[in-house]
Amino acid sequence: MQIFVRTLDDRTLTLNVQSDDTINDVKEIVEQREGIPTDEQRLTLGGISLDDELTLDECRIEEE
User: Would you give the DSSP letter of residue 22?
Assistant: First the structure.
């Protein structure tokens, strides 16, 4: 599925992921593409930080 991640400098990244990927997996994709270390990233949804061990499905993140 395809999701969108907004960066702090207001760019939007389009990522191809699976619903069983973890938040940490998504961070690793961002690190590969943008060079931002995973430990310097914080992914949020609706203002709530997402736990690295949760899957996208568990976070109720669906394809846009």
Answer: B
